[in-house]
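Give me structure tokens for this 87-residue protein.
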Amino acid sequence: VVEGGIEAQTAAVLDHVTAVLETAGCTMSDVVKTFAILTSASDFKAFNKVYATYFPVEPPARTTVEAGLMAADIMVEIEAIAYKPIG
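Here you go.
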């Protein structure tokens, strides 16, 4: 868990997504859909500010929900689906 609140946690999660995509030969521009879970809807504005820096042009479709069932101190979770045509 990263210290520093929702902005630091969002950046850390998206850095991990970036790293996983790179191992698959993809980039953030290949992401077509994300699903984000926030523990508090009041964090949405700060979350979105950081999120937008990772998807500055044509951001993917996104679903964002509030759920209080994540492990202690985790404020955000993000699932990403990427698509890269072969050939």
